[in-house]
Amino acid sequence: MKGFVVLSERALERVSHLLVERRLRHPEALAKKSGSDERTIRRMLRGERVQYRTVAEVAGALGVDVQELLDEDSRPVEGEIFLDWLLSRGAWGVAIAAAGSVAAAGASLTWPERPWATLLTQTLAVTALLLWLSDHRPKTFEKAPARVRIASMAAAQFAGEFRLAWLFWAAFYLWFAAAASWPGALGRAHWPILNALQNAGSLCLVACYEVLTIRTVNGAERPRRSATMRYGWFVIAGLLVLEFALTGGAAGGIGAEGSAARIFALGSGLTQGLALALLVGRLDDPHVGAGAPIFGLYIYACIQGSYAMMPGDTLLEHLLTVIALPLKCLLCLVVAWCAESGILWSYLARLRAADEVLIRRRRAWLMAYRDGAFSGSEFERVGPEAE
After folding, report:
1. pLDDT higher than 70, residue 367
2. Per-residue confidence (pLDDT) for residue 252, from 0 to 100
3. 153-190 per-position pLDDT tens digit
4. Confidence band of 230 (pLDDT split at 50, 70, 90)
């Protein structure tokens, strides 16, 4: 067996018992005896994906045959690994993202004095990915246990709200391209509507975060809209009216109107950066297992949040535009992978319940810490369940 493996629950229990028998209670001791990296050992003990070589080294250190630690559950399920999914089901999405990013970069570098060309290219790329995303939805289960149906309904909620965010992004780029093509033709509506479209996208991203954080489908299998989606639209409409009233559509120049417009632009950009950071923080979970691409999504959240702070540097704006689009496409690919592979469904079905158990255990540990009483098997466990 080559490549990556994931130890099953049975194998993790077997390793836990062997660690006690061999008096290798700590990953550091096991790493020293096996010759493997300690961080990799910890990942293996948490049930994360590791190289087959690492499992073989650990098996040798524990004095057992490596096949005792591997069974049919050890190999990742088809589509479970992000890179593998990209090369199969996500190939068209990668092609669209690559073509759009290269075309936008070329337009930005070739015609820097024509920003509408770059923005129109971005609009086409985002629209194409939106259409592609519609074919990569989570499955629905009508004839299944209630827990499964509830999780599938919540996953469908998440996917729908993310597609809505993507739709607002496409509208944002299209409106921006129109404003750059015909300066002054849109009058006072240019900047306020641009900020409103960006705020609407941020609202949908926060709604996605809420689906991953709180229960949006009750026990009676009735979905409910989050507070963000119920009241956020009124906030966006109010900000739009207020911006029209205070700025008159100014673009952020000198004077009271320009200063107010600058504040609205900063607020809109920072809000989207915050919304992205919230969502990426939830996707950055070992149970999701997206891996290195998550770092790119954090960079995208930083760019999105700081773009409005740029001091009118055209070259810097072009550079950030070239970098931001492929990272935006990466976010789409990660979400499509989570939805289609079943990882999103699994997260919603099991891990929120696991979070509740974790909270109860944390309270038990905090009470023991406060009282200095550490009796019971909970404090004597070693191995993966003690992590």
Report:
1. yes
2. 46
3. 888 889 999 999 999 999 998 988 888 777 666 666 77
4. confident
pLDDT, position 383: 47
Where do we find the tokens 């990742």?
A: 76
pTM: 0.77
- Ordered structural domains, the chain, with CATH: 4-69 (1.10.260.40), 82-348 (1.20.1070), 353-386 (no CATH)
Query: Does residue 95 contact residue 333 with C-beta atoms inside 8 Å?
Result: no
Residues sharing a CB contact under 8 Å with residue 266, sequence separation 6 or more, in sequence order: 308, 309
Closest CA to 275 of 195, 201, 214, 197: 201
Residue with tokens 């540097």: 313
Q: What is the helix (H) or strand (E) element at residue 5, kind and residue range?
A: strand 4-5
CB neighbour list of residue 183: distance below 8 Å, 6 or more residues apart: none
Q: Which of 151, 101, 61 is nearest to 344 (CA)?
A: 151
* Burial degree of 47 (CB within 10 A; 0-12, 13-18, 19+): middle
* Burial class for 163, CB neighbours closer than 10 Å (0-12, 13-18, 19+): middle
How many CB atoms are located within 10 Å of the residue 245 CB?
10
Q: What is the CA radius of gyration of the chain?
A: 25
Higher pLDDT, 174 or 257: 174
Q: What's at 84, amino acid-wise? A: D
